């Protein structure tokens, strides 16, 4: 029995970051130093790791980084005030507020407070609207990373049947939009879907973004399908912590033609596209080049 090709997101992210380093050099030669401001409220351990990785990748390719750390008891007016100052600072080109936020802070209000031109996460309603309309804008990083990996494997996605498992605003909905723009036939499976596994078995492409560890096993996947696993779940195996995806890698890798691992699949691509958005935002704010369409992953 053949085993699926493992899609190495870590290696592909490294390749993309090398290209982005050249983009940063070209911008610096024109007098623009791209700068990413990362805001962390509280001291959630997972968020600390994510912020550290983002700042490290930024510095590695020449992007300036500004870390703004606030205590967990920060109130909403104080956080919104900080965002307003970052919006007004011409030296800051991208703003990222690390989620989740502590209790008492409203994620939607915080996202809406970020200037759309500096919204490198691609979560602001203006950028979401641009994504849906296929207009130039800053697209969400994880969905863009998923499409990039798919195109590296399948090249032309036109006419392929894609099933997205999950309908979140962060991944499920935007990745569905990107797949439609890539001319896929699309099905979205969610908690209220009937015969979810049967629907999934019809897919040429499966993107799992539901947040349930190892939900999707070989019975969900058509032989030869490409499987992109967005899930990052912490479980215990034999009393030891382990990171797993939404896909049961062991069983699905014996059915699929290609599959992303967890970790080392989509995660590194998310950070790479955050850097890509920061560079695009810096260029656009200085009128140096047109941003690529949001659908171009």
Automatic annotation (TrEMBL):
Q: How does it assemble?
A: Homodimer.
Q: Please give the function described in this protein's UniProt entry.
A: Catalyzes the oxidation of 5,10-methylenetetrahydrofolate to 5,10-methenyltetrahydrofolate and then the hydrolysis of 5,10-methenyltetrahydrofolate to 10-formyltetrahydrofolate.
Q: Which gene encodes it?
A: folD
Q: What HAMAP family has UniProt attached to this entry?
A: THF_DHG_CYH
- Give the catalytic activity: (6R)-5,10-methylene-5,6,7,8-tetrahydrofolate + NADP(+) = (6R)-5,10-methenyltetrahydrofolate + NADPH; (6R)-5,10-methenyltetrahydrofolate + H2O = (6R)-10-formyltetrahydrofolate + H(+)
Q: Which residues participate in NADP(+) binding?
A: 166-168, 232
Instruction: Specify the Tetrahydrofolate dehydrogenase/cyclohydrolase NAD(P)-binding domain's residue ranges.
Output: 140-285
The keyword Hydrolase is assigned to this record: yes
- Family classification: Belongs to the tetrahydrofolate dehydrogenase/cyclohydrolase family.
What superkingdom does the record give? Bacteria
- Keyword NADP in record: yes
Task: Enumerate the UniProt keywords alphabetically.
Answer: Amino-acid biosynthesis, Histidine biosynthesis, Hydrolase, Methionine biosynthesis, Multifunctional enzyme, NADP, One-carbon metabolism, Oxidoreductase, Purine biosynthesis
The identity of this protein, by name, is Bifunctional protein FolD
Q: Which residues form the Tetrahydrofolate dehydrogenase/cyclohydrolase catalytic domain?
A: 7-121
Pfam families under this entry?
THF_DHG_CYH (PF00763), THF_DHG_CYH_C (PF02882)
Supply the EC number(s). 1.5.1.5, 3.5.4.9
Which pathway is this protein assigned to? Answer: One-carbon metabolism; tetrahydrofolate interconversion
